[in-house]
């Protein structure tokens, strides 16, 4: 009787440890996508020249330079749009439309800000910059129509945040340094700061 | 005896088999995990080392630029400095560093490159380095040198202590077992610590000095987009300060006639142009409106109640008009709301909306800093997007334009001889930093299959800027 119980116990322990590792597989998968995302820094065609002061001076804002000839919706731009839209979906679900455009605009504002990377991919994949990127949420759900529209608007230069480069949810724990940044505006459940 | 033992033997065999499979599987998982950690670690190490060597190189290039005897030589070095800082920033921003450290050091590197580029740009337009620029360059070179030394020390210390970048990202120490395999850290970072930030105490020694040092650098002012003085710009358009209630009235007057909207929310906007933002929902939905029901936001400036922006989230219906007609709709909206004397420049029509840029005309010249961007819905010509942040920032009484020192025919000599000029026009264009203006001749021309806008400075006769015009199915874009 005792040995049978012990046998059952051993089997139970093995199964539960296996179950833990099975869950570990899922996080390993996520780790792989994050690692690959970080390793493969070329997702689109961003160059620092793209966001030239000239562009800003004339009111247009591109994250990628469209090469001579192709239509405005080049494949590089589509890739950028998709990336931005995924972030909008992951971060601004349930926010008003203005909030979605604002999130995408913050990413684009960072490109032109001296304190952040100079390309769209650099900003998106900067380690630990966006929780939704480093915990894999951006890879999970494809963007919806509203998210794509918001990303497109931001790429066309609409910026409800007037130059903000930080955003956070004031209800959630965030570092003291972030709170020291001057807040420009609140949209939905996020505040935007520079 | 054997009969009694048989079921036990079977159970024993199954158990051993199960353990063997399980053991193999977890070993495989461990191997795969380790491989990925090593790959990521290699990537981070590469970035750190490239950064260190690039900062070292660029400070040397700056020193050479200072030693150069001619502007043309110096220009080459400044160009090289710019190239290296761009790459160094890219390396630096790929490391998992705390926000304050990456922001201040990144800013320093970006400013160095941008400053060098502005020197090169001036030299290309015939303006040699001034004494002030020279002393700034010298100061920046010394700072870059100090940073390079610090990075080298940090790298040496990190190599000695067996530091791993992958530890920093996961918030815990990484250990290696006897076989040299890295064991990834377990557990979550401490809740009290900064979210999404690397704890400083996990970084190699020396880093904690870099951030504060970068913060202590003096303000850098020059003609470039990363210059510090741009943070302090005040809007040119002003007026009496309005109360929130008056501002709301003004905002409602800017809503295009059509759907009835009711105000549901208002916030202050503390950006470069102080303003109020009012949110509206269609009258039908306003009762008990949730955040996602806000479809219209109108911002008016606190000083003067000028329309700063408008954003209507509605989706476009079937288009009933073309881009040209949409441009007219935008123009009549501008005239009706106090923006006189504007002319449309570039525009595109896609997804049921037209986006058009309008620019103020000043004595026949197009004043590009005074620009407004409007989005018009192609189903009924309603203005659903409006952005006057540039206009409010820049528009003011300019008085009579100075007579240009260079006549159009002289200016045309600066152009590429193969460029076929279609038309010439006077224009005021923003400087690189965006806060100044230059009077220029705008030449629209074709070279092979492509269309370009070339701006020639009307005072000096040098080429200032070249834009490429893309003529697409959806409209025109200038890049």
Tell me about this structure.
Chain A has 194 residues and is mainly alpha-helical. In chain A, 53% of the residues lie in helices and 6% in strands. Chain A has helices at 2-39, 53-57, 75-91, 97-111, 120-124, 131-134, 137-140, 145-155, 176-179; strands at residues 166-168, 183-187, 190-193. Chain A has a 3-stranded antiparallel sheet with strand order 1-3-2, with helices on one face. In chain A, strand 2 and strand 3 form a beta hairpin. Chain A is elongated and about 75 Å long. With 479 residues, chain B is of the alpha+beta class. In chain B, strands 3, 4, 5, 6, 7, 8, 9, 10, 11, 12, 13, 14 and 15 form a 13-stranded mixed sheet that branches. In chain B, strand 11 and strand 12 form a beta hairpin. In chain B, helix 1 runs antiparallel to helix 4 (131-161) and helix 2 runs antiparallel to helix 3 (99-124). The radius of gyration of chain B is 31 Å and the shape is globular.
Provide a short characterization of the protein structure.
The complex is a heterodimer of chains A (194) and B (479). By secondary structure, chain A is mainly alpha-helical. In chain A, 53% of the residues lie in helices and 6% in strands.
